[in-house]
C-alpha cells in the first residue's frame, strides 16, 4: 500500500463530526455504497447483512426496513435490476446485482469514444428519461453541437412496443378507438413524430406512436416478411396521410406562395385576379388529409384559399366563420396574462434534484472520467454534464466519501478534486463508471441517431463508423433485434455544404425566400444546423445578429471567404447563445400566450408550433415572435380555442378572417359566372 492509500484507509473511518454526519445521512452516499456492495458480492446478501455493512441506515428495525425498501426502489427507478434470491434452509431472501444485467463492454478507442460522443451529442433527447441512456454509456450532455438532431418522440416509445419489436412478437393496442392486432416491423421518424410500421391482416400500416393507447398486450413470437423499405409506409407529405378520400384541390394565391406549398402552378395570365396589389394564380395539390391542408393554408402570411372542390371550400369557410363567431364567446378581450417562460435547461436546480438524479449525475461524471483517462478539468465536466461547477465538485466530493468497512483502498472510490488547479482525478474500478446496458427503446434511439448523423457526414469520420459497428454488435448481443429505425426526413443536398462551412469555418451566400414569398440575397456565417419537427434550419450570424433560416427556402447556396464575414467575438457569442433544447429561441425570446384547447386540437397545435409549447395545468403555453403569427394560429386551430387576448390582436384576427371570406366569395362568384 502506498502512502496515499494508507492515509486514505486511516482517514476514512476517523472523519471529523461533520464528515461522519454527511457519511451517515446523505442518501446519495448510502445508495452508492449499496450499489457497490450488491454489484461486487459473490453470494446474495440478506437485508440484515446489507444494512449492517452499509453505513447510514437507521438504528430502529422498522425505520431500517423502510429505508432499505426506499433504496431498492431508487435502484430500480434508475434502471438497475436487483435480483431477489430465496436462500436455502431459511425463510429469507437475498439480494444482489448481476454484472451481466447492468453492463456491456464497448471496446472503443479514445478517438472512437470522442466520435460517438460527438454524434450522440448532435441529438436533442427530451422528456423525463431522455438523456439517461447517454449517462449509462458514459456520454454526457454537451451544450454546443454543430448539428442538432431532434429525436424526442423516439425516446417516448412504450417499453412493451420496444419489446415486441426486439423479440418479434405480435402486439395489441387501441388506436383511434379500435383494438388493433399487428406485427411490428420498426419505427419511422417523419415530420417530428415516430410512426410504427406494422403488418395488420396482411396489409402494411403505420401508426403514430404517441396516439397508441395502452395497455399494450405483447403476444406470441411470430415472423412476417419484412418490407424492403420502411419509407414506403408513409407518404412524402402529411397532407397525404390517409384520413380522408384522396382529392385534387385547386388553390388560389401568389405564385411564390403556391410554389412553397408544393402546388403545380398554372400559367399566369393578364386576367388573373389581384389582392393587395399582387397577382394571384391557381395551383393544384393532391390531399387525403383536408384538415392538415386547411390549417397550413390559414398559417400562410399572404392569402391562399381553396376554391375547388366545393366540399373543401365549404369546410375552409366554415372553420373561418366558426373562429369569427368565437370572438363573441371564447376569445375574450382583456389584459393578456404575464407568463414566465417554462425553463427547459438540462441543469435542474439543486433544490429540485432527486436522489435518482444525483446518482445518475455521479454515474455520468465517473463514466466520463473513465473514458477520458481518469482526469478532466472541473470546467470540462460542467460543460459536458450541463451542471454548474459547484454541483460537479459537490457530487464528486460526495462520491469520494463513499466506501465500505474496513475502508481499505480496494473498496474506496478514490476521487481527488482540486479546485485550485481546476482538476479532477479518479482511480477506481467501480461498476458505477462502467458502460451500462441500455433497453431496446434506448438502443433504437441510439441507432437512429447514429444513422441520421452518419447519413450527413459523407463517410468522412471513420472513427464514427467503427464505433457505430461496435455499438451495434454490443446491442445485437444484448437484444434479439433492435428493430429498424429510419429517419426519412432526408436533408437537402446543401446540408453537406453547410456542414463544411461550419467546420472550416466559412461564410455562405444564398437566395432566401421568406414567409411572404419575397426573395433576397443573404450573407451568413454558419454556426449550427438543427432539425425541428422534421424541418432543417441553419442558425448563423447575419448583419451582426443571430438569425434562423429554413433550408427548404434557401436557393443557390455558395461558399464565401471567411475574411469578409464576421467578427470573432460575435461568432463566439453566437455559438454560446444556441440552446439545443430551444434552438429557435422561442422560449427565451418569444412572447408566451396561454390557450385553452379541446383534445382534438392538440395534433394541430403540435404540427403548427413544431412541438414548441408547454403544458401549464389544463392550458397550453405557446411562444411567438410576432403578433401576426398568433393571429394566424388562432384561425388555424379552429373553433374550440379559448383565452384572454388584447383587443388589437382579436381585431386583427377578425380582419384577417373577414378578408379571407371576402376573397373566397369574390372568387366563387367568378367561378359561378364562368369568368
UniProtKB/TrEMBL annotation:
Signal peptide: none annotated. InterPro entries: CBASS_pafABC_assoc_protein (IPR051534), PafC_HTH (IPR043839), WYL_dom (IPR026881). Residues 358-472 form the PafC HTH domain. Residues 160-213, 493-558 form the WYL domain. PANTHER family: PROTEIN PAFC, PTHR34580. This is WYL domain-containing protein.
Amino acid at each position: 500500500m502506498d502512502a496515499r492509500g494508507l492515509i486514505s484507509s486511516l482517514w476514512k473511518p476517523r472523519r471529523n463530526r461533520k464528515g461522519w454526519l454527511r457519511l451517515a445521512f446523505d442518501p446519495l452516499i448510502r445508495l452508492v455504497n449499496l450499489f457497490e456492495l450488491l454489484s461486487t458480492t459473490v453470494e446474495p446478501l440478506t437485508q440484515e447483512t446489507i444494512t449492517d455493512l452499509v453505513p447510514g441506515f437507521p438504528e430502529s428495525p422498522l425505520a431500517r426496513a423502510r429505508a432499505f425498501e426506499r433504496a431498492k426502489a431508487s435502484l430500480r427507478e434508475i434502471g438497475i435490476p436487483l435480483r431477489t434470491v430465496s436462500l436455502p434452509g431459511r425463510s429469507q431472501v437475498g439480494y444482489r446485482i448481476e454484472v451481466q444485467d447492468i453492463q456491456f463492454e464497448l471496446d472503443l478507442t479514445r478517438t472512437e469514444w470522442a466520435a460517438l460522443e460527438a454524434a450522440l451529442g448532435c441529438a436533442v433527447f427530451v422528456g423525463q428519461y431522455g438523456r439517461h441512456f447517454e449517462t449509462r454509456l458514459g456520454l454526457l450532455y454537451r451544450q454546443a453541437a454543430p448539428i442538432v438532431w431532434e429525436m424526442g418522440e423516439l425516446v417516448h416509445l412504450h417499453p412493451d412496443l420496444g419489446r415486441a419489436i426486439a423479440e418479434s412478437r405480435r402486439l395489441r393496442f387501441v388506436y383511434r378507438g379500435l383494438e388493433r392486432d399487428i406485427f411490428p416491423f420498426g419505427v419511422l421518424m417523419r415530420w417530428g413524430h415516430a410512426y410504427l410500421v406494422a403488418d395488420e391482416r396482411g396489409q402494411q400500416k403505420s401508426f403514430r406512436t404517441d396516439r397508441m393507447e395502452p395497455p399494450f398486450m405483447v403476444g406470441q413470437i411470430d415472423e412476417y416478411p419484412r418490407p424492403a423499405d420502411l419509407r414506403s409506409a408513409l407518404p412524402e407529405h402529411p397532407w397525404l396521410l390517409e384520413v380522408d378520400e384522396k382529392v385534387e384541390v385547386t388553390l388560389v394565391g401568389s405564385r411564390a406562395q403556391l410554389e412553397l406549398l408544393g402546388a403545380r402552378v398554372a400559367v399566369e395570365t393578364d386576367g388573373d385576379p389581384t389582392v393587395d396589389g399582387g397577382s394571384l394564380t391557381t395551383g393544384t395539390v393532391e390531399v387525403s388529409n383536408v384538415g392538415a391542408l386547411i390549417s397550413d393554408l390559414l398559417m400562410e402570411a399572404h392569402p391562399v384559399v381553396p376554391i375547388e372542390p366545393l366540399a373543401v371550400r365549404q369546410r375552409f369557410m366554415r372553420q373561418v366563420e366558426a373562429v369569427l363567431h368565437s370572438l363573441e364567446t371564447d376569445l375574450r378581450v382583456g389584459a393578456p396574462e404575464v407568463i414566465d417562460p417554462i425553463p427547459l435547461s438540462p441543469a435542474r436546480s439543486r433544490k429540485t434534484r432527486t436522489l435518482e438524479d444525483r446518482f445518475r449525475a455521479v454515474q455520468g461524471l465517473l463514466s466520463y472520467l473513465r473514458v477520458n483517462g481518469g482526469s478532466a478539468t472541473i470546467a470540462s465536466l460542467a460543460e459536458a454534464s450541463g451542471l454548474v461547477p459547484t454541483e460537479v465538485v459537490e457530487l464528486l466530493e460526495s462520491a469520494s466519501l463513499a466506501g465500505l468497512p474496513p475502508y481499505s483502498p480496494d473498496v474506496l472510490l478514490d476521487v481527488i478534486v482540486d479546485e485550485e488547479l481546476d482538476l479532477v482525478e479518479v482511480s477506481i474500478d467501480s461498476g458505477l463508471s462502467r458502460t451500462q446496458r441500455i433497453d431496446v427503446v434506448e438502443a433504437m434511439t441510439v441507432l437512429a441517431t447514429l444513422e441520421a448523423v452518419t447519413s450527413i457526414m459523407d463517410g468522412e469520420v471513420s472513427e464514427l463508423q467503427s464505433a457505430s459497428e461496435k455499438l451495434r454488435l454490443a446491442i445485437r448481443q444484448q437484444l434479439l433485434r433492435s428493430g429498424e429505425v429510419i429517419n426519412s426526413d432526408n436533408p437537402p443536398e446543401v446540408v453537406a455544404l453547410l456542414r463544411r462551412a461550419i467546420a472550416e469555418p466559412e461564410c455562405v451566400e444564398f437566395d432566401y425566400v421568406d414567409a411572404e414569398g419575397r426573395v433576397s440575397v443573404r450573407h451568413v456565417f454558419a454556426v449550427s444546423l438543427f432539425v425541428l419537427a422534421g424541418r432543417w434550419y441553419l442558425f448563423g450570424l447575419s448583419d451582426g445578429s443571430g438569425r434562423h433560416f429554413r433550408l427548404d427556402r434557401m436557393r443557390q447556396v455558395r461558399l464565401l471567404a471567411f475574411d469578409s464575414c464576421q467578427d470573432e467575438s460575435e461568432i463566439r457569442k453566437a455559438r454560446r447563445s444556441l440552446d439545443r433544447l430551444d434552438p429557435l429561441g422561442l422560449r427565451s425570446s418569444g412572447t408566451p400566450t396561454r390557450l385553452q384547447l379541446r383534445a382534438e386540437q392538440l395534433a394541430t397545435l403540435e404540427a403548427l408550433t413544431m412541438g414548441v409549447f408547454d403544458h401549464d395545468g389544463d392550458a397550453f403555453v405557446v411562444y411567438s415572435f410576432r403578433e401576426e403569427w398568433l393571429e394566424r394560429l388562432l384561425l388555424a386551430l379552429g373553433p374550440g380555442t379559448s383565452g384572454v387576448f388584447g383587443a388589437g390582436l382579436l381585431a386583427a384576427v377578425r380582419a384577417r378572417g373577414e378578408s379571407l371570406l371576402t376573397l373566397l366569395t369574390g372568387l366563387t362568384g367568378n367561378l359561378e359566372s364562368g369568368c
